[in-house]
């Protein structure tokens, strides 16, 4: 059974909480959070848009919203990045709903191998093509969970914090989506 884990240690999360508290008192300290997370949030958005200009615009909106709402943020022992990613997801959803943009999925071979291994799909080349096709047919919410787990390498705990669900729910949803993908592939094999 996987333990609740983050990409940050409890000491790092505690240190980050001190920075958040300082930023809540004086926005000059928000710059530390911005510098710490800009690249990660930009990459998260860019991987889904394929336009550096649009990704930069959305990223600036994410940080503007975070800065404007920092006083409302409550530190709960989770990384600040979970809140930023949640804001980024909302901003991307707004952008997708306002415009007829196609969502992009960037997949590297190692990510496909991880997904194939976890889902129990045979790793033949034709299965990889079918897997890629199946991913494009997933609902946006399902695809987001797969992206967070396999392409962003987030733990179930991190996914739960980002999506504001329980860790168990994140696991159940992930494995249901993997089953759905496997059924799509078997159907088209």
Could you explain how this protein is built, in words?
The protein is mainly α and 189 residues long. It is 74% helix and 0% strand. It contains nine helices and no strands. The chain has helices at residues 10-25, 30-49, 52-69, 80-98, 109-119, 125-137, 140-151, 156-163, 167-188. The radius of gyration is 18 Å and the shape is globular. The two termini are 32 Å apart. The model has no long low-confidence stretch (mean pLDDT 83).
Task: Please summarize what this structure is.
Helix content is 74%, strand content 0%. It is an all-alpha fold and 189 residues long.
For this entry, give a set of tags.
189 residues, mainly alpha
Write the layout of secondary structure elements.
Blueprint: H1 10-25, H2 30-49, H3 52-69, H4 80-98, H5 109-119, H6 125-137, H7 140-151, H8 156-163, H9 167-188
Helix pairs in contact: 1-2, 2-3, 2-4, 3-4, 4-8, 6-9, 7-9, 8-9
Q: Radius of gyration, rounded?
A: 18 Å
Strand portion = under 5%
Order of helices and strands: HHHHHHHHH
Number of strands: 0
């Amino acid at each position: 059974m996987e333990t609740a884990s983050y990409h940050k240690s409890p000491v790092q999360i505690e240190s980050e909480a001190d920075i958040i508290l300082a930023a809540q008192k004086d926005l000059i300290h928000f710059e530390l959070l911005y510098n710490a997370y800009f690249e990660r949030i930009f990459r998260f958005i860019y991987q889904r848009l394929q336009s550096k200009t649009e990704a930069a615009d959305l990223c600036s909106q994410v940080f503007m919203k975070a800065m404007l709402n920092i006083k409302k943020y409550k530190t709960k022992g989770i990384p600040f990045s979970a809140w930023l990613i949640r804001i980024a997801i909302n901003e991307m959803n707004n952008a997708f709903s306002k415009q007829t943009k196609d969502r992009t999925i960037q997949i590297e071979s190692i990510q496909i191998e991880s997904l194939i291994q976890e889902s129990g799909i045979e790793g033949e080349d034709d299965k990889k093509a079918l897997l890629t096709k199946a991913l494009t047919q997933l609902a946006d919410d399902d695809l987001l969970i797969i992206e967070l787990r396999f392409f962003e390498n987030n733990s179930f705990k991190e996914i739960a914090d980002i999506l504001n669900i329980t860790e168990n729910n994140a696991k159940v949803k992930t494995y249901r989506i993997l089953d759905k993908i496997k059924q799509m592939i078997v159907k088209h094999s």
